[in-house]
Amino acid sequence: MKLSASKPLITVVIPCYNEALNVEALFTASKAAFPSKFRYEIIFIDDGSTDDTAQVIASLPSKRAGISIQCLQLSRNFGKEVAVTAGLHASRGDAVITIDADLQHPPSLIPKLLETWQAGADIAVGVRDASKDYAPLYKRLGSSLFYKILNRISGTPVNPHATDFRLLDRVVVNEFNRFTERSRITRGLIDWLGFKTVFVPFTPSARVSGKTGYGLRKLTGLALTSFVAMSFIPLKLAGYIGLIISLLSGILGLGIIVEMFILGDPWNLDISRIVDLAVLIIFLIGLVLIALGLIALYIATIHTEVTNRPLYVIRQPRRDRTSN
């Protein structure tokens, strides 16, 4: 069944934080890359910028370009994850493309994303070539370690080279908009939804102007948020540690009892009462940590209920994504 007699509408969501020097170049490059068989709207989200980002967006020649441009100005800097969410909430397109404003995501890849979508993919994800990553060494090493840990503890696999440069079908966007949690990592939630996903490789470009809004502090905070949002392992960690401590101290204590009172100290170890007391204290600490682990299970249940994610997601029958 066809969507309508008109061309499909594509929404491009662009979060911006102090990107006044990049907005016009991104708009020009994107407009040149847009295939003519689609209609387009661009939603810029000004995430509390302190430069002239909003003014530059307002000066873009949307009427002459035949592209609808909207700028959502957030009251302060809420962070990229919230900015992207605001753009997805405001989008109207049959498909939505999210792209960074720093031109590291090449707009020339947009036709490939659209082609992948028309071929049947619900999600088309831009995957950067790791060998041509312009990020500093500490960021690359930190990113590698982060994804290794996350994929170990999370029930939702995450491609370590996947980016926020991706296309989402309207069905996926509608399901994403049902999420109510405030601490979120957008790509993790999209991966959690499932749907048919195709990875599209690209070579990242160097940042043209300005500085990245993600320093070490923000990246660390995002990593911690991801661990908490995507896994309950950190919450249960005290219980696991307590179980190990209790088992080891229990075995050691049993060995002391057998050696001293059953075998009669045949090796003349002459274990003092202080050692006995230390083993007992360690054992009790283990029991306390196990109790904390049990409490964590209840907290995890409360977290799941409060987060209120959908119990399941139904993939609707594929729609006709071709234009007339």
Describe the structure concisely.
With 324 residues, the chain is an alpha/beta fold.
Task: Output mean pLDDT.
Answer: 77
Q: What fraction of the residues are assigned to beta strands by DSSP?
A: 5-15%
- By CATH's scheme, which homologous superfamily of the largest domain applies? Spore Coat Polysaccharide Biosynthesis Protein SpsA, Chain A
Shape: elongated
What is the overall number of helices? 11
CATH architecture of the largest domain: Alpha-Beta Complex
In the sheet with the most strands, the strands line up as 3-2-1-4-6-5-7
Would you tell me which CATH topology of the largest domain applies?
Answer: Spore Coat Polysaccharide Biosynthesis Protein SpsA, Chain A
Describe the structure.
This protein has 324 residues and is an alpha/beta fold. The protein has 2 domains: 9-230, Spore Coat Polysaccharide Biosynthesis Protein SpsA, Chain A (Alpha-Beta Complex), CATH 3.90.550; 233-307. Helix content is 48%, strand content 14%. The protein contains 11 helices and 7 strands. It has a 7-stranded mixed sheet with strand order 3-2-1-4-6-5-7, with helices on both faces. Strand 1 (9-16), helix 1 (20-33) and strand 2 form a beta-alpha-beta unit. Helix 10 runs antiparallel to helix 11. It is elongated. It starts with 8 loop residues before the first strand and ends in a 17-residue tail after the last helix. Mean pLDDT is 77; it is low at 1-5.
